[in-house]
Amino acid sequence: MLDIMVPSPGESITEVTLGQWHKHDGDWVETDEVLVDIESDKATLEVRAPAAGVLRVKVQSGAEQKVGAPIGAIDTAAAKPAGAKGGAGNAAGAGNAASAASPASAASKAPAAAAPVSAAVVADPVDGKKASSLAKKVAADKGVDLAKVTGSGTSGRIVMADVERAATAVSTIANPVKPVPAVAMPMAVAGARGVRREKMPKIRQRIAERLVQAQHTAAMLTTFNECDMTEVMRLRSEHKESFEKHHGVSLGFMSFFVKACCSALKRFPKVNAYISLDEIEYHDYADVSIAVGTDRGLVVPVLRNAELLSFAEIELAIRGFAGKAREGKLTVDEMTGGTFTITNGGIYGSLMSTPILNAPQSAILGMHTIKKRPVEDPRNPGQIALRPMMYLALSYDHRIIDGAEAVSFLVHIKDCIEKPERLLLD
Q: Is 402 a catalytic residue?
């Protein structure tokens, strides 16, 4: 027997939650085949088979386990059942494994056989298509047949969003919307009000802890400003097609704000610093954390040395992070060590917010939705014009950053966005 141990998701993580098993007890598995997901407070990882053989599950999904604990084993001495297909994980292979196992093994397999999700649901789809482990997990939970799902990921890979769309489509067909009757139903027959409880995922627990910690430990204050997006939008519209053709990625607003923040961080180094006990830790580089929303919570992958990156490199990195975040593939290293954070609530329609610090950082910039508002036309002083405006919010730790410094930092960003040539002229 070859033990399957809980791997370490990263430094300082000692405990994980066992996620969905993609194979059943008694199934034949091939080397490097995905067996189970593990979830920590920072990332979700796949545990793969260390060798080919028959899987023996020792710990069921949902259990809390220490790093290094055995959660299963591979019987490498077992003979491969006739008809078993490596990596397929189909029900036939599981059945052959059961017939080849001893009576005791068959008895141990009984709970797995009674599981509500069949092995066919969590298997790789047909026609050579691939699916992320998170997509498989969601498909198993919602009963979606991956073989009928069209992937939107790289090389046609099926991601979680594809499964969600398929599940919604099936639900709509199975439960068509019925017209609401003209007369309201009496309260007595309106139906019972359901209440349900779900265990908070580790990553959500960790997010909650960090947000409360930031509120309790920092002297947090938020200052606001607004910027005219006319010039950035003109540049983006004028060069968008050629930029995408040359670099293979679309030109978004985020790269302009990252470059503007790097310029401002260079001029106001305290905004890029930490408080460490009774000392201030300065950084001569800008590791910018970009907040990305996922179904599992907000994650903040880090653009290392963002001050050295071009517009195209920033856009490519952000696109890569977004894809990894949707599939739950971000590593702990990719989400730690930032010195400043940018969060864009505007993509959800937010007009104004007060973002919370991402400890131990001292400041975070909040971007918001773009709205046309009547303001004084800079080209015709004294005249009012409709201009595309965005509210900016800078939350900062008043223990290290003074109000005048915070306001000046935000004004510097405003100037860079309203006159983007400043970014080119440094």
A: yes
